[in-house]
Structures are given as C-alpha cells and as structure tokens.
Amino acid sequence: SIALCDYYPPTDDNSILNGGEWTRFETTDPDFYPNASQREQALANSERYAGWSRSRVQQLNNQNDGYTYSINYWQNGYIISRGGKQTKKAYAYEIHVKKSWNREEVVYEEVFDSYSMDLNTFKAGLNARLSEFNDNEEGYTYYIASDARNYYQATDAAKLQGCESVTISVTCSDGATLGQGTTQYKCRTCGKSLNAHSKECAMQTTVTENELDLSELDAML
C-alpha cells in the first residue's frame, strides 16, 4: 500500500483563531459538541484543504482498477477563549487516504517428484531462490506456495520383467478406491515380458481378431 494523502490541519494560534482550515462555532457551553450537521461542515471544509474527499475515493473505487482506496479521518478540537472565558470552539479533521492492492503473480514454478527427487534438496533450492527475490526486489514480498498433491504410482521395465498381467487401480487422494481390475497385454505376441513390441502394441487402438486373447471374456460367459 502507499499513502496518497496525509493531511494535518495547522495548529498554530493564528490558524486556529483565524485560518480557513478550522471551522469555528460560537458557544460558551464547556460541554458543547458539534452535531452531525456541524461535524459534516467541518469535515467537508478539511477535505477541501486536503485535496481529497470521500466522494473522490468512492469514484476511484468504482473504477475497479484493481486497487482499493480508503479514507480515514480524525477530529481535532480547540477551545477559543477571551479574557479567560470560552467564546468559541474550533474543529478540523486530520485526513489520510491510502491506495492498497493484493496482486499475486507466479514468478517461478517447479514440480517436485517424490519418486525421483529429494525433498530437502528441493526445498533448499526453493528457499535460496526465494531469498534472492526478496533481497533484490523492494516493495514486493515473495513467498513459497504449493498446489494440492497429485498422487501416482510408478514402475519401470525392470520391475515388470516376466509379468504377463497387470492390475489397474484408480484411487482418490483420500484413499478411496474408485475401481480396480486385472488385464493382460493386448495380444498373444506380447509374450511374458516387456519388449519393443509391448510398447508398440500399447499404442495401438485396434488389433486383429486372431491376435486377441479373449480368455477372460470367455470365462465370464
């Protein structure tokens, strides 16, 4: 956020007694306090001297430019006396206007893979980059955030060596199993271990009828 206005009414004797920055009400009542209309009169007067008003701040907010504009004000009052007797009370407002924003931008992104990466090493790298950003950028605050975890199971050709069938399971991140089943490779040519043909066959969308192994379906009939 940045300050657009920090207005303080002058408090020297001449300004309070005669200056236009102060709104004065004649009263000998020591308990006098301005009513709503009188307070509005004094506030509007201070807004003119400050160069900022509630209506101007509202207009800026109505533009929806991605910033938030706010105005705050505090009343100041003085007793004016003559010959030791109160004759008037003077009022003016301190006014502050602020422009603020909360914009987020991703300046760096990296994916952590728990299967192949070390978490401590990964965090150390991110923290080093974070320190670099925060040390060299004034007016901005950088922090580390992360998306929700994406779970998956991994395997490789060595682990599948000699396998003819595989189990397919769809599991939610909370542990609930959506579905599970067992299947064989697409065709008889696949054999009992992974090879170049296995990869080629896995990418095919159709196979000839004599290549299909329908034993699972036949057992269900």
Automatic annotation (TrEMBL):
Query: What name does the UniProt record give this protein?
Result: Uncharacterized protein
Q: Which organism is it from?
A: human gut metagenome
